[in-house]
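Problem: given the chain below (231 residues), write out its structure.
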Amino acid sequence: MHLGALFIASHVLTSGSVRETARRFQLSPSTVSTAIHNLETELAMTLTERASGELATLIASGRVLEGLKPIMAAIAELGQWAGHDDAAAESDEAWASRIPVKIVTMERFLEVADQGSINRAARRLRLGQPQLSLQLANLEKFLGHRLFERQAQGSVLTEEGRRAYQIFMAISQAWTISNRRPTSVIGAPPDRCASARSSRPARKAGWRAAWARWSRNGMYAAATMPSRWSR
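Solution.
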């Protein structure tokens, strides 16, 4: 799912209106409706319904919105990094609603960073190395920053790459949690939730622990980053 679609869907759940969201982001109503439909499909649950011609959000949507908050905060940080600040809020929102980066692409970037090698990451992800390299190149082009230094021993994150890692890890963590909500909470069949997760590479336990430490401390501790980042 694209980050832009998540941003759109979050606003629909907040405002309760497809048309208002479409006007605000200068999008077609069909584009907005598709975004909310895609989110419902990804989470395997119904978040909205039509009542007397009006869109009504269901109880589950409130829980989903809460889970999307870290992702919305990360998108805001991504916008600031890309040069979209609060001075032009409407322009920023229009930009955020059109972010083409998929969550799976971010997770592939994280895998390359974890492995320190595009070749090793491609093998783990069962992708061709040229395909993965192209996805990373497109990601760098969109962000306007070089994320990796290609060296003889592998790929090392640049300073901007480390910042991207922090943002994308926050999104990945929040999205994984959203997809792992228990059936009793969101009413999603466990087998469908499991199948949605199965295509995503598992993050290393060490990285999950490190991220938890960063989150608890309210900071991204550069001192705890892997040694290959400082080479």
